[in-house]
Design brief:
The protein is mainly alpha-helical. It has ten helices and four strands; from the N terminus they run ααααααββαββααα. The strands form two sheets. A two-stranded antiparallel ribbon has the order 1-2. Strands 3-4 form a two-stranded antiparallel sheet. The radius of gyration is 23 Å and the shape is globular.
Length: 328
């Protein structure tokens, strides 16, 4: 444990990049930027055909946030590899490390909050349609987005003032909140961060499970009606729910390891492992790359085609079984 602890502190202050694969970072950066741009273009094409819904506004905000993360963080990593200088070594007073840590924390929190807002929007839309139609508007959505970004920024400021800390992780191309070997205010702050993430993940999961169960019940009863004003097919609801559900699953897979590592380090029950902390951070960075490709692959037009083919396949199978039974 002593060697591990020594390695942990050594990584905080090294100025030369010791190892790593710049090609991996370059591929992740390209995939993230390309995916978000394509997804935003597809959303804009769809928006021109009809007025943007509240859900589409939230999706656009999520994709823009992911794109912001790709263009604001990944170039710093590539620059560190190119110069063979760590984030600490690239600035006199660790400003680059603080910028990177602030950006990573802000992006993780705002993305999480946006996913939760999307889940709540579906929850209210399907579960409480009258309230949704009467009280939720685009203005309310924009105010929600503003509050999400402002609150995320405010939460990320304390480490810059000494409450918590942004530190460098090996190989020197990453900076994030201090997750191990913490005490005092640092321990309180990282505990709040992990608890906040866990709370919103739980809220998102509960909302999505509720909506899925409600849609299944409504489909079985043949009553796919919303507010009594217009009917909506199962395909239209799935066009919103399926991407959100998949993104939530990916987010849990990408975020939960970080939460686990924080709690393990806080309890001190296991030997602190800097390599495991770094793996958790890398999982966290994958989410902004996965998001846009889910929306691209599962866009409404593609879902309709898949749904029709599955329906035709089911119909042909049923017809074939009926014909075979009649012949026998």
């Amino acid at each position: 444990m002593e060697n591990n602890s020594t390695d942990h502190y050594r990584c905080h202050d090294i100025v030369d990049v010791e190892s790593g694969k710049p090609l991996t970072s370059a591929v992740m950066f390209s995939a993230g930027v390309l995916g978000n741009i394509v997804a935003l273009v597809l959303l804009e094409v769809r928006r021109r055909k009809s007025s943007a819904s509240l859900y589409q506004i939230l999706v656009t905000a999520l994709l823009l946030t992911d794109l912001l993360g790709s263009v604001s963080v990944s170039p710093v990593v590539l620059s560190a590899y190119a110069q063979k200088k760590t984030l600490v070594g690239m600035s006199a007073n660790k400003e680059m490390c603080s910028y990177f840590g602030f950006s990573m924390t802000f992006l993780s929190l705002s993305t999480l909050a946006l996913l939760c807002a999307m889940a709540l929007e579906r929850y209210l839309s399907i579960g409480y349609p009258y309230f949704y139609e009467e009280h939720l508007s685009k203005r309310c959505t924009y105010i929600t987005l503003l509050l999400i970004y402002i609150s995320s920024i405010i939460f990320c400021i304390p480490p810059l003032l000494g409450f918590g800390a942004y530190v460098q992780y090996c190989p020197g191309t990453w900076c994030f909140l201090e997750m191990g070997h913490t005490d005092g205010t640092d321990k309180v702050y990282i505990g709040l961060y992990a608890s906040f993430i866990l709370l919103i993940i739980s809220t998102t999961i509960v909302c999505n499970i509720y909506v899925i169960c409600l849609l299944v019940m409504m489909h079985r009863r043949g009553k796919m009606r919303r507010c009594g004003r217009r009917s909506r097919s199962m395909t239209e609801e799935l066009a919103h729910l399926l991407p959100l559900a998949l993104i939530t699953v990916f987010y849990i897979c990408c975020t939960f390891p970080l939460v686990v590592r924080v709690y393990i380090n806080l309890t001190g029950s296991n030997e602190e492992c800097h390599a495991a902390d770094l793996r958790a951070l890398r999982f966290l960075s994958l989410h902004s790359i996965i998001n846009p490709w889910v929306f691209i692959i599962l866009r409404p037009s593609a879902l309709k085609i898949i749904w029709r083919k599955l329906h035709k396949l089911q119909t042909s199978t049923s017809t074939g079984q009926s014909t075979e039974a009649a012949e026998n």
